[in-house]
Structures are given as structure tokens and as C-alpha cells.
Amino acid sequence: xxxxxxxxxxxxxxxxxxxxxxxxxxxxxxxxxxxxxxxxxxxxxxxxxxxxxxxxxxxxxxxxxxxxxxxxxxxxxxxxxxxxxxxxxxxxxxxxxxxxxxxxxxxxxxxxxxxxxxxxxxxxxxxxxxxxxxxxxxxxxxxxxxxxxxxxxxxxxxxxxxxxxxxxxxxxxxxxxxxxxxxxxxxxxxxxxxxxxxxxxxxxxxxxxxxxxxxxxxxxxxxxxxxxxxxxxxxxxxxxxxxxxxxxxxxxxxxxxxxxxxxxxxxxxxxxxxxxxxxxxxx
Length: 283
What we know:
The chain is an alpha+beta fold. It has helices at 76-80, 119-132, 185-197, 210-224, 243-261, and strands at residues 5-11, 14-22, 62-65, 71-74, 89-97, 106-114, 134-142, 145-154, 157-163. It has 5 helices and 9 strands. The strands form 2 sheets. It has a 7-stranded mixed beta barrel. The protein has a two-stranded antiparallel ribbon with strand order 3-4. A hairpin with a 2-residue loop joins strand 8 and strand 9. The longest helix has 19 residues, at 243-261.
């Protein structure tokens, strides 16, 4: 991995030198735009709408259009003079319980690696966060853009999650929110039963990207001139049933599916992730 930022965590009077690495990567297929007739790549040029000339990247400035139609031009010198802290510091603001921050705020995830001389305070902070079950709320400036973020311990490393600012979260404004919807007790009991019958533990290796697998098969078939895979026909919807009947049938289907998919010798996990098999008592 290649670091994209280098700085330090400011933790009270303690400074922890770190480097930032992207923690995620997309495995999607990247397509080029092609001319259907001759297979040529489609190219794009930066052309000025006033003079019609192609413009070099070095001659391009940033412009922000105001409500009255005027455009404010900003160049690199203007951006560098912004009155914000860009001293490559991750400033710890406070420590909060993990459950207090809604995941809707999170944007991107990064790993933090300590400098060779900062391993001990790094491990100290990581362990303190684990023991307290808290996140560190921090501020960091990346590419001249200050953002809110959190630090948390994951396995043996610190992970930084950049966050949206509170005013960037939209409020849900839907008509149904103001209506009085009645949920019958028997429906709630059946829905709870459905949740319980489908409960399990999250094991990431059990989930796969079906779209990516199908796309890979399609590209391979096209490249080799083989028969293209065909999507399975969707099942026709049957009769319209009421909510209670749908819940009952869903519970039955979930229980049946879990029973048939359980591997021999592998214990079925309950909602709390515990094995349903009783441990044999020692002789």
C-alpha cells in the first residue's frame, strides 16, 4: 500500500507520528467509452466555451458561480491562503461512546500506521480506545479540505473514518411520517419471529458480489466467443396475500431454508452468535 498523507495524532501533550493509507478498494469493472462502428476510444478535450481553444491543465482555475450569476475565480494561491489549520495534525477533540455516532455520517475509511518511533504511544491509544469502548472524534485536513473524522481500534490498528458535517445530512421528509399507522400485536409478534428465524452472526467471507461474478463470466464469454450466459427467468408473482399470511409464510420459508442449508457438523448459530449445539460434558 502507498501512503496518501503523513502527519501526527495530537493526543493531549502526546504526539503520535502516523501515515494514512486507504483501507478500501473497489473491485468493479471499469469500462471505456468506445465508438461502436470502428472500436476507437472516445477522447475528451478541455475546451474553453469563449475562445474555443483547448486549454492546458496548468491554465485552468476554479470558478464558483454565485446566485446572481457572477463567477468568482480562485487559483492555487487563494486556496493555500485559507485560514484553516493545515499543519498535518489529527487533532483529538473528544472521546465518545461507540453507539453515539450514527453510521450515516461515515464517508471513507483509512488505516493509520505509526512511525517507527511512535509505536508505543500508538499501541497505548489503541488499547485505551478498546478498553473504554469509545471513539476519538478528530479533525483532519486532507488536500486542503478540513473534515470531521473518528478514530477507532480495529484488530491491531487504528482506523480513521472521515465524516460528513451535521448540516450535510438530509432530513427525511416523507408524507407517511405524519400519518398514524396501526401495527397489530399479532403482526408484530410474527415479524419478530421472522427476525429471530433469520438471525445470525455476520461472517464476511459468506458474502459475495454476484454482479461482479456475472460480469466476469460475460466478459470472458465475449472474449472467447463462447455462448453468453443468460439471466434466469424471474418467477411470476402469485396471488395477492395479506400481511399476516405473508409473514407466516416467510417464517416457514426462513426456517426451512436454514434447516436445508446447515452444513453437517457445523453448529447453527443463534441470534447472539452462540452455538445451538450443547458442548459435550467431559468424562
